Amino acid sequence: SAEFNKRQAVIGTDDLGDFPLLYLTGHKAFQYTPPQVDLLRAYLDRGGFLLADPCCGTAEFDAAFRTLCTQLYPGRPLAPLPLTHPALRAPHDLSAVSYKPAVQKLFPALGARPQLEGISAPDGRLQVFYSRFNLGCELQGHGCANCLGIAGRDAYRVAVNAVLYALSH
User: Fold this and answer.
1) Terminal Cα distance for the chain, rounded
2) What is the SS3 assignment for 131?
3) Model pTM?
4) Distance CA 159, CA 39 (A)
């Protein structure tokens, strides 16, 4: 079990350089202003890291996040991370993950294939790590029956890999 401190960061108000990584989640669609997008891009380009997932796996947040990624890096789209990517290899092997029942029901062809995507800097460093299916509900102990998320220990494994990658690269 790990302990951590969380603090809400407001883009355009807080100095993002104070945060080694940012975690973005939510249920609904959202939109950042062009100056906020520029500040987030500058943070990522200076070595920052963004971990994101849609709370309960909502399509509205997923679509908004994909739009944000296009605004951040039009020439570098959010793309599936290869199973050989260091963020998927250590400390946990994420070549297969288990999903909650709602994901299994709605996406039966998915099997155990991880839906983990990212955007990397030109030097190869991962800047954005995105799980199409929710991690946060599991991390917070929420037992949402309809949650489109990664199940149990695998949600922790994905989060641990993302955080350790962010702190070591």
Assistant:
1) 23
2) strand
3) 0.93
4) 24
